[in-house]
Amino acid sequence: MAKISKSDPTHAFNHHRLEIAPSTLLLIVLGAAALWLVGKILPVLCVLSMSLFLVCALNSPVKFLENRGLGRVTSIVLVFFMMLIAVTLVVMMAIRPLVDELSTLNDQLPVLRAQLADRLADIPFAYSLADWVRHGKYKYDGGAIAMNYSVKIVELVIYGISGIFLAFYIMLERDVLRGGLFSLVPRAHHVRLSRILLNLENIVGAYIRGQMLLSTMIMLLTFILLTLVGADNPMVFAFFAGVADVLPYLGVFLSVGPAALDALSQGQTAALIVLFTMLIYEEVESRILIPKIFGKQFRLPAAVILFSLLTGSVLVGPFAALLSLPVAATIMMLIQELRFQLPGETETNEKKIIIKKNDRAEKEYERKTEGVPTEESAAIAVKIAEKRLKDEKETKSENGAKP
User: Fold this and answer.
1) Are residues 296 and 382 in the same domain?
2) Residues 255 and 154 in one domain
């Protein structure tokens, strides 16, 4: 570590020299190199995260088809094929009408500026703002903007396709990859590792169920509003609002804005009705519905849900913040599975019983898999972990049902 040495004490003023130990200097260099490497391969890490998320999300329907008699490879191919069809339909339904609405808005922009300036001119102390709206000039290079966004869209499409193919091959090579992962972990912890992987799959499934419920609600609201005001494309923009609602905080602009633009063709009053109604709903969703729905799915307090969303948006941005809730649930799960004792937490009798049963399951696994290859032992560990998680769920349900 760093050392501070003094010069000759006979001097009137002692000089201090900071000496850094070679090991400390090496750690600093390695840490800086690691940060630099993470920054360079950040897109790759994002693609990998997307792939693992897809694997967890699609594993349940694959298992469902396997249980109905289909082979694993056939089930995987069928599930991915259906997913690609759904994505293609979304793009075909949403992109073209949205581009048409934006083109119409661009044509109507001078008229809208004049109307807004007239309304501002009637408001006291807003005359200068009205004059700026009416006569102000703004720089708009449509070609440059279109080119920049085209490049970004192409990059996102390439990353998305790469993530889908990576998820596809991860699912196909599940046994080999799982065996490689388990070979890195001592055999005594294989059952616990299986529990963690299964819990991760459950967390992703819970997140998808909660988000589908929220997306369906805003789709219905948008469709009803646009239909009532007589908008041209209520179904398309309702679907677009449901997809955009996935993004925390940023989704409000991507869902409310296009819907209001679609209603603008029926007049300013219709657009304002859609705008304010959807803004009120978005406020209710972010403050009440999200904590309630995801709190129930993840078994997390409402305060933790809101804090996770805010932290994710501030630290990693609105696009990556959509993973903040699964990440928070994963952290809480790891604390429980790795048996960290939180400050002020007391160990209940029920928890002690669960820990003893898990310890017995791990010893039973070691006995059953002695001399068994890693791939086969990994499959046995998963089956034992599934049985233990099912027993725990039934026990908690029975205890919860008691008065």
Assistant:
1) yes
2) no
